[in-house]
Specification:
The complex is a heterodimer of chains A (260) and B (126). With 260 residues, chain A is an alpha+beta fold. Chain A is 15% helix and 38% strand. Chain A contains 3 helices and 17 strands. Classes of the chains: A alpha+beta (260), B alpha/beta (126). At the A-B interface, strand 2, strand 3, strand 4, helix 1 and helix 2 of A face helix 1, strand 5, strand 6 and strand 7 of B.
């Protein structure tokens, strides 16, 4: 992204002759005097248009009586480029059900004392198989910190999003921010589809390093005793079966005990 | 860092050291030092950051015993190292190619960004 653009009157042209109007030159909106690039591994490259910008004579020059801002500018672009500013990290990612209970672990690894030790036990069990149920209320929180002056201080933003993804995001919410601790949290309801989901936080903003975290959980369907006991749409049938029962008893009493 | 005239940038380097960076300067006029320089040692980068302030370097070549080539700079960035590159009016194609690796395109030689309206009088080259 361009870090320092020229004024609207800046253009690119040869210094030793006038530029004929027929030749194409880059205007101020396409040109940048200093550009910055950040790779996906958060490596940063800053390309400055002129090496004179860092020279001693420019640092100490005065323009219309004011000192040039070159020294401060060079300090700030080099501190961004060398990873002293705009670097984020996260820690303490937790997810629980809304009332604070942790998710179930349904598959436990079986002890196999007869088999040799291995790094790859039962393949059909995911590591830490944490399981939530569909339509559970899930609370997710993480702490994000930013490197400021050599110290990791809490970061605050109001546009960090959490996605709950199984091939496509089923839920996407903005995380609320507790600024004093840099804590980002939210509570959402798990969707109706069950399967293997992941919590994904992907935060990419210009000037900051990329913040990406993924955390996998399973979502299970209802157990047979977790369905509703009485279904609203079945009330007519409940009513009809009980009235049939009562009507039959009344009829049988009437039939047996009235004289005709 | 790769450097042409070290003394010209001394204030900048003092600021960098004051912020806690350890600087090791490679003066390009010293060809022995150039051939012994390396950015990484068996896959691990030796430095965290690289400053290339020598825009007129003719070639980033890899000599027999050392030196830095463009692929070295690319793999340095791939390992997570940061780079600061500066150009100049008479910058060479080698520097231009390195900048293009990162998506920055420099204009033709002898082209400068000119602003006739806000020129500073003692630096104005007319």
């Amino acid at each position: 992204m361009p870090l320092l653009s020229g004024n609207p009157t800046t253009y690119s042209g040869p210094t030793n002759k006038y530029l004929p109007t027929s030749e194409k030159s880059l205007g101020a909106s396409e040109l940048a005097l200093v550009t910055a690039v950040q790779g996906r591994n958060n490596a940063r490259v800053v390309v400055a248009g002129s090496v004179d910008m860092f020279s001693n004579e420019f640092f100490t020059a005065k323009i219309n009586g004011n000192a040039s801002g070159n020294r401060a500018f060079a300090a700030s672009i080099s501190s961004w480029a060398f990873g002293e500013r705009g670097v984020l990290r996260f820690r303490d990612v937790t997810h629980t059900k809304h009332d604070g209970t942790p998710p179930d672990v349904i598959l436990h690894e079986k002890e196999r004392p007869d088999l040799p030790l291995t790094l790859y036990p039962d393949p059909e069990i995911t590591r830490n198989s944490l399981v939530y149920r569909i339509r559970d209320d899930i609370t997710f929180s993480m702490v994000v910190e930013e490197l400021v002056d050599g110290n990791w201080t809490p970061f605050s933003a109001n546009d960090m999003q959490l996605e709950f993804v199984m091939l496509d995001p089923y839920v996407r919410t903005t995380l609320s921010n507790d600024e004093s601790k840099g804590l980002f949290y939210t509570t959402f309801t798990a969707p109706d589809s069950y399967g293997i989901f992941k919590f994904r936080v992907l935060y990419r903003r210009p000037g900051y390093s990329v913040l990406h975290h993924e955390n996998q959980v399973s979502l299970r369907p209802f157990k047979h005793d977790e369905y509703e006991r009485f279904i609203l749409g079945a009330y007519p049938y409940y009513a009809s079966s009980f009235t049939a029962l009562i009507a039959f008893s009344v009829f049988s009493l009437l039939f047996l005990f009235t004289k005709e | 860092m790769l450097q042409d005239k070290v003394s010209r940038y001394s204030v900048f380097f003092e600021d960098l050291s004051a912020r806690g960076h350890t600087l090791s300067v490679l003066d390009l006029s010293d060809s022995n030092a150039v051939s012994r320089m390396g950015l990484d040692h068996y896959g691990e980068t030796l430095y965290d950051n690289l400053l290339i302030l020598a825009p007129s370097i003719s070639k980033f070549s890899k000599g027999n015993s050392g030196g830095i080539s463009q692929e070295d700079i690319l793999s340095f960035v791939r390992e997570g190292g940061n780079v600061l590159i500066a150009g100049d009016r008479d910058m060479s194609d080698a520097t231009r190619q390195v900048a293009e690796l990162f998506g920055v395109h420099f204009d033709k030689k002898n082209f400068e960004a000119i602003d006739h309206f806000t020129a500073v009088s003692e630096f104005d080259t007319k």
